[in-house]
Amino acid sequence: MVSMTLRLAAAVLLAARMGGAAAVVDSAAAPAAPQRAATACVAPPPAKLLGGERRRDCADTPELVSIAAGRFEMGDVLGNGPPYEKPVHPVRIEAFLIGRYEVTVGEWRACVAAGACPESRVSDADLRQPVSLVSWDDAQRYLAWLSRRTGRPYRLPSEAEWEYAARAGTDTQYSWGNHEIAGCLNANTLDLRGGEANPSWTWAADCDDGHAGPAPVGSYPANAWGLHDMLGNVWEWVADCWHSSYEGAPDNGRAWVQERCSKRVNRGGGWGNHVRTTRVSTRDGDIHGGRSDGLGFRVARDIIYAKPAVKPAGPQS
Predict the structure, then answer these.
(1) Confidence check: pLDDT of 254 > 80
(2) At 211, is the secondary structure helix, strand, or coil?
(3) SS3 call for 276
(4) What's the whole-model pTM score?
């Protein structure tokens, strides 16, 4: 495993390290927030989604992008990654919806205001920044609240869905190609500005991406399928339990889980990591109750299509 767990008595102080996720503090014992009733806002289901369409279930809920069904090779297709990105294996993916952006501070605060989510402790952040300092368990509370709010079953993407969406039809090191030198133009990773703000972090890339810490979502170009910040900004929780290899992984795109699962997978790298740690196949796992200032999530859900209208019966002969 490439991440490190820190336990601090006074406050959550988290630092990223090269080659892995930001450090994570265990918060599994944090009490659940009280929940207040919310009025559901149910958007009409689409008749058909072909892929690439944007929609919101409610005016104030995360924007979604439809991802068409397909097949891809999952894992370290270039052969230069660690063992837990192997073996490369074919996966088929059903059409689904995924957040265009990582869940933002503003979107999280709506859940906090409803009494359904705990404070993220990012109280002074730009509302368009990705929410962080939220555990996998916290993300489940948000998803449950969002499901009640919209009348739709929200969830985390599976690890296979996440990689399929991040690759966006490519088989390269990054969604923009194979050259890490282009990282500062395409993703928020540890750059010269971030290195100056954190002088003990010695792995900054020799370029400037414009942000020393988390960047407002959408600050960098989208991938070919219209998704922003799949690489960099914050690591993203996904639904799967951590497995140290892909031996036995499902080939149907569903989350790989079991009854007992102390660690969950996160993907994509973050603002405190060198760009080489934001490869499309990069993966890590952390305790499900852990929180980090470099770890957030984005939402997903299955597509619910409208039932075809029933034509009235004609005159009886």
Answers:
(1) yes
(2) coil
(3) helix
(4) 0.87
